[in-house]
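User: I'm new to structure prediction. If I give you an amino acid sequence, what do you actually give back? Let's try with this one:
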Amino acid sequence: MSEKKDLGINVELVDRLLIGPSPSFINKSSASGIVLFSSAILAMVIANSTWSDAYHAIWKYQFVIGFDEFIISKDLHHWINDGLMAVFFFVVGLELKREIIGGELSDIKSAVLPISAAVGGMVFPALIYLAFNQEGAGSDGWGIPMATDIAFSLGVLYLLGDRVPVSIKVFLTALAITDDLGAVLVIAFFYSSDINFVSLGTGAVFLAVLWIANVIGVRNTIFYALIGIGGLWLAFLMSGVHATIAAVLAAFAIPARTKVKESHFAQHMEYLVARFKKADPNKVSTITKEQLDVLQDIRSYTKKAITPLQRLEDNMHPLVAFVIMPIFAFSNAGVTLAEDFLTQLVSPVAMGIMMGLLLGKIVGVVGVSELVLRFTSVQLPKGMNKLHLWGVGFLAAIGFTMSLFIAGLAFRDELLLQESKLGILLASLVASILGYFLIKKASQKELQKGGEDTVSTA
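Assistant: Good question. You get back a string of structure tokens that encode the predicted 3D arrangement of the chain. For your 458 residues, that looks like this:
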């Protein structure tokens, strides 16, 4: 306590600026889950109202960029899915790199259980889907039920408040991050077509430029944005490999090193704060030139103490969480229910997705976790019980954002896309409700158990 008091404002600065971004990410993602849900509901309401035709028509509006023979023409829906969602995948890439370097995926022992659960939660849903769709165009949708929507799933945990142990949020986050990596690989290898190797080679050159810049110490984020968007992303967009993959690759090229060490930062901040205290105030609303110089030094040195990767991730999360993902949800979740929508709901595609998410995720997440717990020395995180694990399994079955995205890549047939969206939305809704009540019940049991242990000890 005395140590913190001695350091004063320096500790507060270090805590605020250098602490790991996971808690902040959890809070933002959970809050965005509510925004996502609202966007999806609004889309469904409008798509089944008198504005239905206008809703569907607006996404077909054509936008063209380029000049002469170098032109890219896509409708608004594709610009959202290929353009705006590339920003989403860029942040996913930043998050993946951070977690691999120094987060939940960096410690093999603590990462074994969520990684194993994530792998199981990807394999079994795909197999169950294929059991319903063994052949035909519907078989292309096997990647749809593999995904987990981290914003929605953490949003459900957010509704439970402080009753949910932090360890469960960390476990679910690590699981969903691994799931995101799996989804990126599936998109790269199975949902890219008609490869243009000239454009792909051009993209590889731009990627090499980004990596070289990282190695030689370039930290200017504007440079990475220009090369990443103007070079790498455009090249991949024209190559046939989905452009969102370029966003992930660009994210992995962002520097993850600080210019100053934490200890040096703390010492130098003490010196700068001491200078600020000694500076004579001018006793008016503005500050003196000397005070301004000190504050600018603090800002400059603080920037050097934060990695470009973490600075970008932290700055871009509000944009992704509260703008890009809601726009994506609003443009993709609007399913106009036909008179025979119940027939569509029991189609092989819809059933494969629903059973893949609701059954496959549970078998994969809970079943594989049980095997790991039984045959290895790995244990459940502190504060987490088996009922919590079942609840996490259902929350992992909330596919929504990534599932809708993969559905758009898998199907060009409007009927199949309609069926897939119905399956995704219904399964995600059921999974949300079941996951919420299971984790609520599990947390109540833990609280009762804690109370009994306290009485027993007394």
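You can read the tokens as a compact description of the fold. Here is one thing that stands out. The radius of gyration is 24 Å.
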